[in-house]
Amino acid sequence: MIQFDMKDIPSRECVPGVHGKFAHSPNMTMAWWRIEEGAQMPEHSHEHEQVVNVVEGTLEITAEGKKWTLGPGSVLVIPGGVPHLARGVTECRVIDAFYPAREDYK
Amino acid sequence: MIQFDMKDIPSRECVPGVHGKFAHSPNMTMAWWRIEEGAQMPEHSHEHEQVVNVVEGTLEITAEGKKWTLGPGSVLVIPGGVPHLARGVTECRVIDAFYPAREDYK
Description:
2 copies of one chain form a homodimer.
Chain A: E1 2-5, E2 12-15, E3 18-24, E4 29-35, E5 40-44, E6 49-56, E7 59-63, E8 66-70, E9 74-78, E10 84-88, E11 92-99
């Protein structure tokens, strides 16, 4: 059993306006994001499967030539290797789950 | 890319007061729970690794003879095979990530 308290974990501003806190299990990484309105994570890809859980606000994901506009309660599965970008349409709070764990976020 | 909207997914009351909605990726399952105050998921275990993400309210997890009292921002890793029970101290909203995917929740 490993406990994390996101209140005590320093936030990392991965790109301007995109603030992440990370918790790792042996096989998964949870990323708790606060994305400012208009902030954008540029197009990137990774081998990890990603599940985007939107908790608050509106997030836009662009991938495979399409846009997904996600609100509270939206869940989006991004398979490993698919280039995608994310933009905060409004300030938003998002919890991403990655498999396998993100060594690059440790 | 697979999109789920939890607003459109029917809730399953797994035990009285414990309401779950499920979204599956190839390797993970997300469970969005609304747990009523005082409701309890009895002790159980599963081979799946579980990461508990508390979004709102207070949740108590009991495992290995200890209690964890979790609030918003708490993240708890429960390794596969560890018996645990969960109780809503207040009404709470929790997102669990499981690896591998929960075939029993499909």
